[in-house]
Amino acid sequence: MSEARRPVVLRGGTVLTLDAAHTVLTDADVLVVDDRIAAVGAQLDVPAGTEEIDARGGIVMPGMIDTHRHLWQTAMRGYGADWTLTQYFVWYYLEHGRAFRPEDVYAGNLLGAIEAVDAGVTTTVDWSHGLQTAQHADAAVDALQAVPGRFVLAYGNIQDAPANWTTSAEFREFVGRRMSGDRDLLGFQLAFDVTGDPAFPEKPAFEVARELGVPVTTHAGVWGATNDDGIRLMHDHGFMTPETVYVHAATLSADSYHRIAATGGSVSVSTESEQSAGQGYPPTWALRSHGIPVSLSMDTTVWWSGDLFSAMRSTLGADRSREHLEAHAKGETVTHAALRAEQVVDWATRGGAAALGRGDLGSLEVGKKADVVLLRNERSPVMFPVLHPYGHVAFQAQRGDVEAVIVDGRVVKRDHRLVGIDLAAARRTVESTVEHLRSTLGEDAWTAGMNPEVPETKVLDNPYTYTDYRSAATHEVR
Q: What percent of the chain has pLDDT over 70?
């Protein structure tokens, strides 16, 4: 039995199984044999030679699942901190996205994939819409396969119409060469958006997805970009399926939500993105009322963090804020929050598995795939006491508290350190990409892109402003 796949047992932790009943076990063990969960319970007997990981005082949970992240943009981490969607679209779609070479897509994917695994995200959908050529696509896949995580390549190309690139000989050749094998560790989707043009020019792309038997993931309900017309066209032509993932879905009408619910689709909510970039108010409050399944995602580290702890925290905040705001508008008070921490932890794990059609992921149950995360940090004052495990995951834990990660039965992070990852090499690769982009754009364009103009803010006139408030105060005392 090889060292890489020897049995592993996590001993004595608080186990969030995320099974259908959301069973929580205390002082419990999780045994992994080969690529599966072999047993969950107290004081388990284990095979000889089993590696033991001390989980006492920690939380053991399923690996988290991000259903929408543009990994190719990771090399530009933080560059667009002050962007809105306007700057994002101009930079990537219209002006500088074409400057990315295959090696730049590789750099972003490599760093983003490493970052995801390090933060306990064991499955990431790479919403890879920078694949201008098959060489770019090869680079994306090469990077994903260099990192010991579970990924889904959502193939896209924002520089060409979906009807063109999905029907090209180059795309077909790539699919046959790179995506025709086992899709356990590397899944496949098509990623494109529906403009709402009555001619429905995206129809050929949907037909290709149907022919290949792969799901479509699409940015839907994005203010100023995609709307109810796109949902209606998809529905009227029979392309809304249970496998379809609608990203954001933040500015849709009740009619569109009903169509999504009726056809069994799910929504990937990127709360940090929606709050900041302007797609629309994070829609979990509406999705819950329509019975639409939810998963969580981080979108892009050009702006935001790359971990689902931030996603869970911001989603709870946005949903509850909306609930309070609407109640206050009616003169009412919310006394019991409708969305609970337990639910967003479910969305970050089980919800992601359901969105990807992976019933073998998302929970710690016997026979499921062994994607496991241990949250424990003996050097942190934040990781004790663990009184409310779901609340601790959603509001207290951070990426630095991820002590161990197991993907497909292999330990890929142990004692807070990644196993077999050359971070220095990833850094050099990313530095090369940044140097290429800066030199290609020129320093003025690079600086301007990072610093969009600040709109003028006018301070309102204040009727209580005194000409000399000190004199007024003195006069009042007399």
A: 96
On whether the CB atoms of residues 274 and 85 are closer than 8 A, the answer is no
Instruction: Say if residues 219 and 125 touch (Cβ distance below 8 Å).
Output: no
Q: Give dist(CA 19, CA 365) in Å, integer.
A: 7
Q: 402 forms bridges with which residues in the sheet?
A: 375
User: DSSP character for 350?
Assistant: I
Cα–Cα distance for residue pair 136/433, rounded to 1 Å: 14
In the 8-state DSSP scheme, what is residue 458? P
Tell me 109's DSSP state.
Answer: H
| Whole-number Å distance between alpha carbons of 152 and 441 | 31
The answer to whether 251 and 280 have CB atoms below 8 angstroms apart is yes
Q: Are strands 150-155 and 186-191 parallel, antiparallel or unpaired?
A: parallel
Look at residue 465 and tell me whether its pLDDT is greater than 80: no
pTM of the model: 0.96
- 471/448 Cα distance (integer angstroms): 47
Exposed (0-12), middle (13-18) or buried (19+): which is 436, by Cβ within 10 Å? middle
* Token pair of 47 as six digits: 């095979």
pLDDT in tens, 137-184: 999 999 999 999 999 999 999 999 999 999 999 999 999 999 988 899
The answer to whether 303 touches 272, Cβ cutoff 8 Å, is yes
Predicted confidence (pLDDT) per residue in 84-120, tens digit: 999 999 999 999 999 999 999 999 999 999 999 999 9
C-alpha distances out from residue 300 to 81, 159, 178, 316, 430, Å? 11, 18, 25, 20, 16
| DSSP 3-state of 356 | coil
Q: How far is the C-alpha of 26 from the C-alpha of 33, rounded, in Å?
A: 21
pLDDT score at 370: 98
